[in-house]
Predict the structure.
Amino acid sequence: MAMTHYRDLWIRDKKPYDPETLLRIKVQAGQDAELAIRAANRAKRDITFAEDFQSLYAAVDALTIASRELSLVSHALKSAYDWGTVPVPEFQDQFINQFYNLPENRRTFWLEGAVFCGLGIDPGTRILELCCGMGWYTNYFYSPFASEIVAVDFDPRAIEMAQRFHQRPNIKYEVMDIREKLPSGQFGSVIWDAAIEHFTVEEIDGIMRKIRSAMMPGARLVGYTVAEAADAPQLPTHETHFGGMAHLGGLLKQYFKDVRVFERLHPTISPPRHNLFFYASDGSLPFDPEWEHGLRL
């Protein structure tokens, strides 16, 4: 099977832009890409013929600028195709966030979830990541702290991308519907970031019970979601709409003795996005007074 088999199936089913809009997007992207490519070619020529270190350094600097511009243009185009036509993805291509949304739109909420999740992971533990998407967080944020990380997603296109771009020796990717089952064995950390909202309350209940059975004593569930109104969800694929910290915390408290929820408002997207971060365990949590990795003076 080709490494892009599920991507190609998904593209086949997408409704394309109307011809006029598609032509406008193509022309603008082509013009922007051409400018960046010309700048890269000039930098390449200057590197080849540089006669001293100062000239060489300036040429390399120019090449990095041109490469960033080309990356921004190409990922802006991919974002338009991914999210401007239906069906929209079940997961985000994080390269779009890395190379387009971060430099162009100053959006950082997609990074904060992984950072705060990481604070709840004890180094060297066996990690279960639910709804891992394309594996960007799995690779860069979680695998460095894991003895092994088992990352699952129900979307075969997501796992296809993860195996193409984010494979590591201690990562195991699996296509799996967590409403039906979880991977075997016990885990010291369970990560459920940017995905709990994609399930109904009844489905969350069943998944939570499976999570509890898969957790070692003292293990933590870490993750984040978004606060949103039911009549104005961030994405049409959201099934549960958390009204705020109390709503999310009350749900988690049904399954864990100790719960911490906090929020961050992001104004760089309209309407502003309320990220909700959470830790849940029957043991200690990050920022508890006894947490060994923090000190309040």
Notes: The longest helix spans residues 19-49. The longest strand covers residues 215-227.
